[in-house]
Amino acid sequence: MVTARIVGHGAALPPAMDHSEVWDGFFAQHYGGNATAEKVWRSAGIDTRHAVVDPRVEDVSGWGTGARMRRFVEEALPLGHEAVAKALADAGVAAEDIGMLAVVSCTGYATPGLDILLARDLGMSPDVLRLHIGHMGCYAAIPGLGAVADYVVARGKPAVLLCVELTSLHIQPATDELQQMVAHALFADAAAAVVVVPAGEADPRTGLDVVDVTARTDTTTLDHMTWDVTDLGFRMGLSPKVPGVLARHAAPVIDTLLDRHGLRTTDVGRWAIHPGGRRIVEVVAEQLALPEAAVEASYDTLREVGNCSSATVLLVLQRLLAADPPEPGQPVVAMAFGPGLTLYNALLTAR
Is 106 a known active-site residue? Predict the structure, then answer.
């Protein structure tokens, strides 16, 4: 039986900035010393953030959407190239052997898009299939992974999934709206990629087999998380009710995923939980009865890079594998959350 196996990982980050210094050097003035905004910023659980735009040097909050999209292509292309090149090297797979390139982003658009430009610049075949997954938000890496895994099994060729998000291009004019304060405090920039290959039972390559992907969307909470295209870039709405919704759904969706494979949460060796914010990770851990160590990689990723939208869960997964690789045969679960509200989950098996 052929499965889809993740065998290569790569990431690229723009320049780092001290989280507190960004507040002191820009957002304190941007919000006119608003005490609520400062409290949100200081309690975000982030020490370092990475961004293609340093607001202390370049204030884009008044830019139009067209200018932001042009800047997106300029900045995303080299970051995406670096992340994919690293993943290909890690996998030992040549760019010309890739059968599908899937690119995920909710922070920028262009036509011809990054998928075309990156396939050209990386030396992929002119026959490579391309897929662009746009505007799904923070959970989009997992449906992207499901799509490339299905392709790999059906066609027997390697594929690449790239998530590239540049949220720093969407700083908004200052308001006293709490949701905007939270968004500005949490989000940062990153690119992350994985290479997925067809693998048989006797394949010696180590990695993670993609076993299953599930989703649940609670459409009664559509207004809790939004990402609106405006004349001044993309504007996020992020309700404080989000953790409560996740508290209702986290355990049932994971039970559904695991039950159909004869597993329980205690069987899972590693957890890659998207750190949408500290409270989100806390709530999920509470509902799944996970020990602190099980979500340490999520907290560490949030602290060191922030919430990088769709790229974040791949960064957590890469951190897990580098710091404490699971034993062969151990189940690994990846979870991410976004607009809908939607919970997306992947069951992986270590090889």
Answer: no
